[in-house]
Amino acid sequence: xxxxIDKREVGAREVGASSERAASGSAPSGRGAVWAIIITGMxxxxxxxxxxxxxxxxxxxxxHLHTGLSGLEWTVNAYxxxxxxxxxxxxxxxxxxxxxxxxxxxxxxxxxASAAAALAPSIGVLVAARAVxxxxxxxxxxxxxxxxxxAVRPERRAAAxxxxxxxxxxxxAIGPLVGGAVTTGWSWxxxxxxxxxxGIILVPLARWKLTESRDRxxxxxxxxxxxxxxxxxxxxxxxxxxxxSHGWTSxxxxxxxxxxxxxxxxxVWWELRVDEPMLPLRLFKNRAFAAVNVTxxxxxxxxxxxxxxxxxxxxxxxxxxxxxxxxxxxPWTGVMMLLAPLVGVLINxxxxxxxxxxxxxxxxxxxxxxxxxxxxxTPYADMVAxxxxxxxxxxxxxxxxxxxxxxxxxxxxxxxxSGTNSAFRELGGVLGIAVLGAVFSSSGGYTSGQxxxxxxxxxxxxxAAVVFLGMLTALVIPGVRRARAARATQEGESDxxxxxxYLDRWPKVLPEAVGA
Length: 516
Description:
Order of helices and strands: HHHHHHHHHHHHHHHHHHHH
Strand content: under 5%
Largest sheet: none
Number of strands: 0
Distance between the termini: 16 Å
Number of helices: 20
Structural class: mainly alpha
Mean pLDDT: 79
Helix content: over 70%
């Protein structure tokens, strides 16, 4: 799914990290910064790529492991669910136990889980391995940004974060293509085996080249909150995934929903009472913050739910190889790499909110066009235009999103706000796959190409409707427009032509495009 990034140290924690370095007598060096970019960039690429690389391998996994729709849903959701739940706590754990230590542990855990996924003899083992991968990814993502920020001198930090963000954006853009190429050239297991040598190299390299730091005084781990939200979300998602096959009124499904509702209610009750909550619910009293997070969740719900079925349609119904399917998805997923800098320039000129609203409208239009267009024999050429529209909409949404999130809270809460929004986006993807999977299985299946289309079409229609609902939610977000003069003064940006601004903006915009 989407790459998620926590700005905890770039904002509120950066002062603490700088103080620690000053106290220890160490300062960032040029060579250390280069190593930090290499190590954190490789770790970020590995974890980000795994968010989408599996999408084009799903049809092959379904046949090879003799599974059905629920198995495929859990193959994706097991990773995303653990990632979303643990993301908010990983930075706090790192601050208490040591950021480098937890980062290295995350890489090791991710690597071992990747090997287990590659060796999985059944869908149950694969799902379990994916869940552990998600836990490792949640430890890697926020701490990679923290460690990079503390290793780079302030005057070079923007360029370093730009390179880091570009790596994450590249992984998201080419994830389906890499998954297709590896699955076609070797086998689906190699999409996981590729992580193993990278992890084996990174673990000793990170211990050797990265500097340890911690901040015991300012962070705590909300273990009870993690357990409650995990139980609640698992119960809801399990009920949605199993509803069609077991019956929506069956004891198991109703019990699952009951556990989920009770777990989430208990989570809210606990978070309102604990001194240092995992999720500070008081922030949701702010209309801007609440609206932007609901909007992000609805967008991810519709978009990632549809992408889950799209690569399966191209392979299962239209007979393309995994590589060909990955290439054909590029007009959707790859357009952000081309347009992100231009959208970054537009943020300063028209504001973030109009771009987000327009992006949601285009995304909903592209999905609805696909729903009206697709049948078993639809030529790929007819799909290119809605793919491009959806890709433009995705870019217009993701790039300005960070401005809306950070503009909705005080500076001291930027890290918490960014992490919360990242978690909401991931949860939106989880719920989207589960709900659209239920819609798909209620109307269609894998018995024939036409049966697949019968389920795929209403699923896309529901996804388009949810994204449109996200657009309506975005309309209530107060506009956040950062004056161009202020940014030019802060970043040294030239007041040149649009082309000059585009080129100048390129190294700065990709962290925003992937959520930094």
